[in-house]
Amino acid sequence: MKPSFDEMSAAEGAVRSHYRTYERWLRQQPADAMQSARSEAEMIFRRVGITFAVYGAKDEDGAGTERLIPFDVIPRVIPGAEWRELEAGLAQRVTALNRFLHDVYHEQEILKAGVVPADLILRNSQFRPEMMGVDVPGQVYSLIAGIDIVRAAQPDGSGCYYVLEDNLRVPSGVSYMLENRKMMMRLFPELFASHRIEPVAHYPDLLLETLREVRPTAADDPTVVVLTPGMYNSAYFEHAFLAQQMGVELVEGQDLFVRDGFVYMRTTQGPKRVDVIYRRVDDDFLDPRAFRPDSTLGCAGLLDVYRAGNVTLANAIGTGIADDKSVYPYVPKMIEFYLGEKPILHNVPTWVCREPGDLDHVLANLGELVVKEVHGAGGYGMLVGPAASKAEIEAFRQQLLANPSNYIAQPTLALSTCPTYVEQGIAPRHIDLRPFVLSGKTVQMVPGGLTRVALKQGSLVVNSSQGGGTKDTWVLED
């Protein structure tokens, strides 16, 4: 594998300028101080209940398990100028994706022009015919997007940012971004005196502002709620956290009902009309009349109210068609088609296995590639060729041959590394970054995002479900 870009150290060990103040401080810390901080963070996170459920994992009694997402006490630091370029690229990308979503559910100009294959969209399980012709407020479909960014070393020793994937349905992780910052300020207040770090604590205010901006036109003082599948969902902590931080109600499907073309929630004072639903429930489960009749997580009749424009859903039904991994390779073309601009952020080179030529290349190079399911998430259902055994590669080959349209493949990028405090001390570990992009009347985001770290030595899989952890992300003011 190619050498990784080191976020803190340049060639021959020289510390990068934006890390120098922190690196001097770190060198002065006794090992037991960092270990003590790590233990204190774990104790506080456990006490507060910052956990996530692991689907399929059971404890000794056969019950579902909850895990603490490991928190690393060494931050990831990004210079202000670097962040501004990332920010511009993210705003450009999400704007184009929202334009694409409006187009495919209306005129379908990009399909007629042959820029994106029509059958890739219209036969895709994530395309929702029920959304055809539905006008959503401001033509914004994905109000909350989580865009996964990685950095890889270039031949000249620099690091180039790439978009690894777009999460436009119900992206999670922002609560960990906020809690990580609170934890670092608690553990190391002196670092915030010696560094000018851009704040992130106002994210819930920006989120509420964005949700209120897309209210139905008749709602002057909109009622906003967060819709959760319930306490057994893996991200339930985040649902409750965001509702509490925004000062809005956390509701489940059974708390909502439809009457006379509007959505109401049950309260102790009687029914209260709901105008905006920040839903953390997948499309299939939102309305048992329209989608899965066995769903108990949604609200019967919700789709009709939504189509009539009497409630806003964030994110919109049908956004999954824009973050399907087989659609990802076309995003740079979307940016040029809708905005007339060159993409600021690069895609990772991608082979779409539904294409015979691409499939042949992937089958011939399985041991060198990362192969992913187009609807996969959480690091499941993928092959990391260089880390796989011959038996695993051959088993995956059969899956590919049986259903090639279900997979895409990418080169194995050597994700950048950042110093990380592990059991053995400080060591480099691979990281990515998930900034959270809010689209209402304008596109805005807090500086940084959630840095995820692969805690296993040599691992490139940062997902928390696969043993990854998180770091605080510092964007420095100029």
Automatic annotation (TrEMBL):
- Please name the InterPro entries in this protein's record: ATP-dep_Glu-Cys_Ligase-2, CP_ATPgrasp_2, UCP005522
The Circularly permuted ATP-grasp type domain sits at 75-454
The highest taxon in the source lineage is Bacteria
Q: Which Gene3D superfamilies match?
A: 3.30.1490.270, 3.40.50.11290
Q: What is this protein called?
A: Circularly permuted ATP-grasp type 2 domain-containing protein
